[in-house]
## 1
Amino acid sequence: MPAYLDHAATAVLHPAARTALLAALDDGWADPARLYRDARHARLLLDAARETVAAVIGARPDEVSFASSGTQAAQLAVLGAAQARRRSGRRMLVSAVEHSCVLHAAQWHEDAGGTVDTVGVDRFGRVDPADFAPPPDTALASLQHANHEVATIQPVAAAAGVLHAAGVPLHVDAAMSVGRIPVDVRALGADLLSASAHKFGGPAGVGILVVRTGCRWVNPLPADEREGGRVSGFPNVAAIVATAAALHARAAEITAETPRLAGYIERLRTRIPHLVKDVELLGDPDAAGRLPHLLTFSCLYVDGESLLGELDRAGIAVSSGSSCVSDTLAPSHVLAAMGALTQGNIRVSFGRESSAADVDTLLAILPDAVARVRERAGAVSL
Amino acid sequence: MTPSDAGTSAAGHSGHGAAWDGAQLTVDARGHRCPLPVIELARRIREVDVNADLQLWADDPAAAYDIPAWCRMRANTLVATRELASGGTAYLVRRCS
């Protein structure tokens, strides 16, 4: 039986999002910046979506803008805050395990003459909040809410406390957590936050950008009047409406869903080391310290690309941070920063459509798949 | 071993040179991609005595992470690493079990 186990890459479109998307394509097509009836209707839909998203994540509606992707939202958050605070300093603090979109934005900042300090992580991929004590010339810091490869939840509020004591704002990349676990921008202490609709069942092409009231920020790109001057260009009203519908539905679902998915992960964590020799489970062994739906492990003497192929032939879709799967031939920077084994790396992530049968399928297929890959490489009884 | 690598080893004498010279076996896994250098290390470590060292040469980027991880998982010790003049990295691994 096929099993889609890559919900952390992209979630299946939520039924509530599909319904809202189709309705809004008909009702919300007009330009929300105009003043006639159809335009006013599009404006109402857009404003309602903004209010819904703001309410779910504990923000004010005027703090929320919609970008064209989570990546664009993160880039705007980081570069806009750096630009606004350039007289305070040109230093940016980022964790070593940020998503590449944040690291690419940091690289951009460095290429423009700024400085980037990388904050290291422990073997679970977690930062020490004390390491976010900012040097005097720091413009901002960026820290993910939870890691996209190993599920580790970061001590965001504690890092925010350290930064705020020195007057430095924090951007939180919440792409992995929004719609999966409760997210509250005020409780996190986030001054800026970004998220991505397709990660929680919304459509592709919508990012959520939060700039808290009082946080200095200027658009790092040519600006227009759209989205409060924060995101330029005509907004995709229908997709934004669908995003709000998906997030609203997720907020109601996750309380019941979390223990179910956490149970699948617990079963994998217990069974895989018995079924597969020389496997390293990565991330926090304490369930309270990680996202409920994601598990990453590495298999010694295994070529990750070959293992992905074996699993794909059995209908199992997962992802890998091994070097052979990367275009650059370098292993995932997250695994590298943790000092984890990078070969034979597999990330399994569940979603609302996942069932116990998916777990059964993986546990039935994985041991022989690993054994075949090892045998082909001549890695037997090592 | 190419003359330039021998030179690098001798030049490193002031640091860990003595340990490098004491390796019982040198295995060149350069040109092999992940996970082959680690498989080669696991296979050939049996040829050295317990508490003796093996020198593995590799130029795969993943080796920098996976050789320390293998040593941790197999309770062996990564004694030292050094860059090779002819390309790649040398890993000095002590067989502990």
Note: Chain A touches chain B at residues 278, 280, 298, 300-303, 322-324, 329-331, 335-336, 339-344, 377-379, 382 (CB under 8 Å).
## 2
Amino acid sequence: MYPMQNDDWARDKAEFAASPVHAPHPAGNTDSSPLGRQFAQLTALLLNADTVAEALEHVVRATFAVVPDADVVSVTLRSADGILHTPVETDPIGAELDRLQNRYGHGPCLEAAQEAMAYKHSGDLAGEPAWPRFGPAAAKLGFASVLSTSLVPDAVPPRLSGALNIFSRQRGKLGDDVVRDRALLLATHASLALAHTEAVRLAELQEAQMRRAVDSRDVIGQAKGILMQRRGIGADEAFDLLRRMSQDLNVKLAELAHTLAARHTEIDLLGD
Amino acid sequence: MVDGRRYQRLWRLVTARARGRDFSGWAGVVCVVAVEDVGVDGAAISLRSSGRAQELAAASGSWARGLEELQYSAGDGPGVEAFTTARPVFVTELDRAGQRWPGFLDTATGLGLAAVFSFPLQAGAVRLGTLDLYRREPGALPADRLADAAVLADLATGALLIDAASGEGASWAQADLPGHYDDVNVAAGMLATALRISVDDAFLRLRARAFSSGEPLLGIARSVLDRRLRLDLFLD
């Protein structure tokens, strides 16, 4: 017989994954700290969350709990048209703060949602030179400090990009490393929660995109080889030639490559 | 449902690793964590399709990379099977696996592979590729480690989706960069032109040459590219 462990995977996977952890692990020690417990609880909640909004709601609550200076926490999502949406917040004023940034076209949540792996911090919103209109407006609403951390880094549509935002009513807060690290960890949780809950919806689309990218790279390579052999030229030259032909004929590079690879014995190229 | 504590612990290992300076995509981080946590000697993530096209998304090192390339060369192997059947493939004693993967087994054993654990990466109804864990020692993984590996396969699926969506980091996800197996495709195009045969036929001849010579397919392809290997050697 085969030395195999194959079985009904769906059933076994659940069983395997549910079996208790016996071996001690260095990373497991933080479970005993209050912060560790918060994260443990958060992850358990995220795994049971049915919707993106529900998952983000848990992240927002956990952020509120582990950042002592937080007065308002929100998650901002940026849609393909660049508009900020505020699906979850600990206070309705979170949505108002996003609306202000939409109106002025600048602000921490907007910028963190646009940039990969970014933090945007200010400990003095009233006098913040980076946000000359949003800063004073936020100060008028009673906020002095802000920390926005990007969610999914460098996302492309249809995936939403976003930011986890923490506002404090006190000046000079939310700028130290401890808060930053916690925010990054929480934002990572939110990003992965987004990735997982969106995965099923987006997977088919992305799978098709990935598959197309892999396939078209294959035929582009093959077309390069065909041109190299026909013309006695190098790989870079062949790629340039391919690109020029694609422009001249107004045909997509991958399509041209595909035609060349599929019908190269019949096609005579100019100059052959 | 998946054990939350286990998920959380592995998640934390992955995110902690992802903050390192050498970050080049989430898939790579999952491979590193798989090696360290599951206790295997190599881990790799490949995008696979029902056809020949494959892409190496990440490997923990050159040994694992070589074994993925071997599966590409051979067109069979544990990852290929895990992908095709949508089930994990565990072989705990490779030298007793008989004629299961004729193109893969002998060379893999020669490279020191003794046990392999391949997981299909499934997102909903869609299969993206596999997480392949390679070990130099024969034997089953303890249930606890196997459970970790299963969770890491889930994380690997998310990792691929995130890597594919982000513009930086993972080179395989960037459409304008040549793929890992580009040289094989270029060589197939050259050979097809020289012998006036189809690209598919050319690919099969390259593969046959790799099989009979014991040299990796990428190596054969590079010999063709460098014109070190005469193309008329591939005539029937």
Note: Chain A touches chain B through 74 residues (CB under 8 Å).
